[in-house]
Amino acid sequence: MTARVVMKLKVVAARFSTPNVLHLRLVHPLRPELPPWEPGAHVDLRLPDGKIRQYSLCGDPDDLSAYEIAVKREDAGRGASIWAHQTLKPGAIAHVSAPRSNFAIQKASRHIFVVGGIGVTPALPMARRLAAEGADVLVHFCARSKAEAPLLADLREACGPRLRTWFTADGRRFSVSELEDYVEGACLYVCGPPRLLKAVQDAATARGWPEARLRSEAFQATLDENFKPEPFDATLASTGKTLHVPADRSLLEVLRDHGIVMPSSCELGVCGSCVCGYTEGVVIHRDAAIPVAERQHRIAPCVSRARVSVTLDL
Ligand code: FES
Prior knowledge:
Blueprint: E1 6-18, E2 21-27, E3 42-46, E4 52-56, E5 67-72, H1 80-87, E6 93-97, E7 110-116, H2 120-132, E8 137-143, H3 152-159, E9 163-167, E10 186-192, H4 194-206, E11 214-218, E12 232-236, E13 242-245, H5 251-257, E14 276-284, E15 298-299, E16 305-312
Parallel strand pairs: 7-8, 7-10, 8-9, 10-11, 12-16
Antiparallel strand pairs: 1-2, 1-6, 2-5, 3-4, 3-6, 12-13, 14-15, 14-16
Helix pairs in contact: 2-3
The structure holds FE2/S2 (inorganic) cluster.
FE2/S2 (inorganic) cluster (FES) is lined by residues 264-267, 269-274, 287, 289, 300, 302.
Keywords: 2Fe-2S, Flavoprotein, Iron, Iron-sulfur, Metal-binding, Oxidoreductase
Organism: Chelatococcus sambhunathii
Domain FAD-binding FR-type: 1-106
């Protein structure tokens, strides 16, 4: 598991941003300041069973007296969000890692965000920082309705006229035709469910956006009900040892079974914590963490598999 330092933080405020999104404010009971972070960063929340889930920090990075996260209740999820909603009330202690970022503000002449639902959490501090710096920023925020749009008031306050809302209940559904053609130096950020990411990525490619100017953060595992896992072999480049991965086990599990220490967090192919290199083999990529340009040499062993065999850079 990850070796990141875990802090015991106290919940000092818990309010519902929408009927199913709980917005939490967490402080250190003894220290006045928490470790610094950059907009777009996330923390790991450790659950009582030792598993961890990642949540983007949605507060103000200039205010280190507290961290803020927003947890969407997923009734069909794996239980973490329900546990958080039931347990993390004012006074409760949450085990939270130091922040880490793999979704950061890029150097750009124009910043365009397409945000879906709870995907607003990393986008809010990013847009707030950019707007405060006077950067050229535009945020498209998509949700079912105004009442179901988390952190809407904060985003509105941060962005003002730079915010465009798309609420399907009002007959305003976001269409990828809203996307602009690529202009040299611009950057496009997408955060939300995989379906939104895919639609925007496809439209951006058609409008000439180079992949390097597209940043995305998935907020849900890709559901691929028809996928039938097959067994394969994984060879460790450092020792030449070959491990068999049966159809009912992940590569990550098999590596750990053989004493190989692998970091991980989401175990859903979303966060990128477990990603390692590979040098040979045909990989079946099932994650949403590795950019297409890096898929020829990087694999997310929590969800991805190989056809017949793969040689890992481990
Ligand atoms: S643990 Fe998150 S991508 Fe593998």
